[in-house]
Structure formats: structure tokens, C-alpha cells
Specification:
The protein is an all-alpha fold. The protein has one domain (17-150). 42% of the residues lie in helices and 0% in strands. It is built from 8 helices and no strands. It has helices at residues 21-27, 34-37, 49-53, 79-83, 87-93, 103-118, 124-129, 136-150. It starts with 20 loop residues before the first helix and ends with a helix. The relative contact order is 0.13.
Amino acid sequence: MDACPTKAFPGPYEIDAGRCISYLTIEHKGPIPLEFRKAMGNRIYGCDDCLAACPWNKFAQVSSEAAFHARVELGAPDLKDLATLDDATFRQIFSGSPIKRIGRDRFTRNVLYAIGNSGDPELLPTAAALVQDEHEDVRDAAHWAVGQLNGPSK
């Protein structure tokens, strides 16, 4: 319960799925509510902090099934590169991955929240370029990221 960045566990054996970062980044359509954007940190697809904190997972073993292993090329992706993917390139990179199912627009929305939380002023031009994106959710996230990177005094 304490590990959840959005407090999605209101009590023992209870979950408020609408607060869960995995739900918000994967299933939720539209802009993510403002109250959760900072707590998302750099999470783009899912969270699973609850699984990392769960004492039962100390018994978990790495799968021998290759399909469940992380793809090496996506181990530490560059946010700028991810934010600038067009639909065709997004589909190509994430072919065979569950990430492909959320589509380029929702994925880019999530990347922009990570950019806004990065504190990296070098990502400001990347976010600013997406304020004119054709998809409303991407535009909204881009405006938010620009505001975060510009800071309250700018």
C-alpha cells in the first residue's frame, strides 16, 4: 500500500483502479488527470511498483520463455527519440509487443508526461514541437510538459 505512487490502495485488500499508473498509462483514454501526472515520474507503460514491493514476489523466478524477456534495445530508451516517433515507426518498433496496442498517440502522451517530469531543459524543444500535434491528447500532454520544463518563474 505504501509503495504506490498514486495511492491506488485505499485500504487492505482494496484497489482504486482509476488511480493505478498501469491503468492510466495503458487503458485510460484521454488526458491523464493532473493529480497523477507528477506521480507517474518516468513511467510510460505500466508501473508495477506494487509487484516489486509485494513480499510474495520474492518467490518469483525469471521465465525461461524468451517472449517474456525484456527487449535489449528498449532497456533505456531516449525520451526524445520516443516522443518523435511517427505512427509507422511506432508500429514497426513495437511490433510483437503489447505496447503496440495503446497506439502512437497514447504512447506519445505518456512519453510527454515523462518528459515533463524529467527536469531536463534539453527536452523542451521536443515537447514544444508536439503542441501542434494532430491528436488532442498529445497536444494537452505537450502543453503540460512545456509548462513543467519552463518552471513556474518563466
